Amino acid sequence: MSNDSPILLERDDGIATLRFNRPAAYNAIDRAMASAFLGHVKALAADASVRAIVMAGNGKAFVSGGDLSVLRDDPVNGAADLIGPLHEGLQILASGDAPVIASVHGAVAGAGLSLMLQADYVVAAEGTKFNLAYVNVGTSCDVGASWALPRIVGQRKALEIAMLGETCDAAEALRLSMVNRVVPGAELAAATKAIAGRFANGPTRALGELRRLIRTSLDRDLRGQLDAEAQAFARCAQTDDFREGTAAFFEKRAPEFRGR
């Protein structure tokens, strides 16, 4: 893949990294990047060897938002060109088994923050700045922010974050559970690789069932959630990883999961 591709795809032992690659524009999402995101996500969803997916950014930012130059001349069609592929890609990621990790630094704003919020686990570098930002350019949000943010921080705080458009630092993002871990910038890559490796070596089908159960739990009543849990457990019980996990328990050894 060319180094000037809008998103670089890296693979390492079951871990696929999508690296946003418009560093001169602080990885602002243009049409090419939105299209590349969807294309890569479709390919990864069809690849059973992928057991964890990392989203990261080149240069001084994770993703600084949508490229406003796309929207300046034709706001409606430009927005559709960006939002359509991103939304389709996120639905594919949410329906899959592979956990998604966001590895963020620098600026995380607008659609970049929305993307980050969709991840299952977030590692942030010290010094990272977060701003939902949409209200600052006179629009509402996209890329699932209105779905994820109230689930993470609660409705009252979500309204504050969305409507004031203020910047918060990594410590505040950690306090609000918008991120899971904050590390020194020099340790970001290693910390990301460590958590991605844990997921990639885990029981992939079970992780997939868990992430879907938790993500959809607020859409069901208790009876519906209990039924969904029973069905998911039954599917897991038919996997090789479940057989390996139970065997390892009785044999008093660490399980070796294969993602099957």
In short:
The protein is α/β, with parallel strands linked by helices and 260 residues long.
Fold and architecture overview:
The chain has 260 residues and is an alpha/beta fold. It has two domains: 7-200, Alpha-Beta Complex (2-enoyl-CoA Hydratase, Chain A, domain 1); 204-251, Lyase 2-enoyl-coa Hydratase, Chain  A, domain 2. Helix content is 50%, strand content 16%. It contains eleven helices and ten strands. It has helices at residues 31-45, 68-73, 75-95, 111-118, 145-153, 155-164, 170-175, 188-200, 204-216, 222-237, 240-251, and strands at 7-12, 15-20, 52-57, 61-63, 100-104, 107-109, 121-125, 129-131, 168-169, 181-183. Helix 1 (31-45) packs parallel to helix 3 and helix 4 crosses helix 5. It starts with 6 loop residues before the first strand and ends in a 9-residue tail after the last helix.
